[in-house]
Design brief:
Low-confidence stretches: none
Number of strands: 9
Radius of gyration: 18 Å
Strand content: 25-35%
Bound molecules: adenosine-5'-triphosphate
CATH architecture: 3-Layer(aba) Sandwich
Distance between the termini: 41 Å
CATH superfamily: P-loop containing nucleotide triphosphate hydrolases
Mean pLDDT: 91
CATH class: Alpha Beta
Oligomer: single chain
Length: about 240
């Protein structure tokens, strides 16, 4: 099961964002799209979900389709009038899931995302990290094949950020969905991505993460060395562009 881009190009009017991309996103694997601000990371995420049309090339969904791909936008899009439980129930109602099955999936999902005590709260009664967990739980409650997350931790402090990152990986292991995360944070990329897609002007380079399978990798020097390597790579890209 995969999403495949072949010779894919995309432009906003005359501004080329990607040219001739070839990329396959597999299920049960995590990818991070890493790059500096404004380079086209969110655009690539919306292309994968099929929200933006390519100017050239093709996108192919093998064994899946657009409805089985969930995207969590940076602004989360939680409705102020919905409690946590109602937010999780809405996509299930839209999908036509029967009420008994809805209750069982919501109960499991709130437990997994540690939201049980918050189930009757509204968004304005939640912290930033809690809102992020609700948005991810709402994304996963329909059991999609692929979950796409746009900058899931950018507004969080370090401790909350690490907690949300751990929740993301635990959920991915449990649901075995394909995961694509956009970030400009190299430590987040090193922590969350089995494969890192570095976006530079109009191109993409794939890097296999050598430390992804290291247990408790935040305690290892190799993790910080790899993050630094990614950071230097982004800086080098900057210099090349300016020359
Ligand atoms: N709807 C649009 N119409 C025209 N240009 C757009 C549109 N959306 C984004 N852009 C431009 O396309 C480029 C890529 O935007 P995109 O949001 O994909 O970047 P990004 O890497 O996700 O940035 P950030 O990290 O700041 O969110 C930017 O120059 C942006 O101004």
């Amino acid at each position: 099961m995969y999403i495949q881009l072949k010779d894919a190009s995309f432009a906003y009017n005359t501004e080329a964002i990607f040219k001739q991309l070839n990329l396959r996103i597999e299920k049960n694997h995590s990818y991070v799209i890493l790059g500096k601000s404004g380079i086209g990371k969110s655009t690539l995420l919306s292309i994968l979900k099929g929200l933006r049309q390519l100017s050239e090339g093709t996108i192919h969904y093998q064994g899946t389709n657009q409805d089985k791909i969930e995207i969590v936008f940076q602004d989360l899009r939680l409705f102020p009038w919905q409690t946590v439980k109602q937010a999780l129930e809405m996509p299930l109602i839209i999908e036509g899931v029967a009420s008994k099955e809805r209750r069982s999936r919501i109960t499991k999902c709130v437990e997994q995302f540690n939201l049980t005590d918050l189930a009757t709260r509204y968004p304005n009664q939640l912290s930033g990290g809690q809102k992020q967990r609700v948005a991810m739980a709402r994304g996963l409650v329909t059991q999609p094949d692929f979950l796409l997350l746009d900058e899931p931790t950018s507004s969080l402090d370090q401790d909350t950020k690490e907690h949300v990152q751990d929740t993301i990986l635990q959920a991915q292991r449990r649901y075995r969905n394909g995961l694509v995360i956009v970030t400009h944070d190299t430590e987040e990329a090193a922590y969350l991505g089995e494969t890192i897609l570095v976006v530079e002007s109009e191109t993409l380079t794939l890097i296999d993460n050598p430390i992804f399978h290291l247990e408790k990798r935040r305690d290892h020097l190799a993790f910080y060395e790899f993050s630094l390597e990614l950071k230097q790579r982004l800086k080098k890209g900057d210099r090349n562009e300016k020359n």
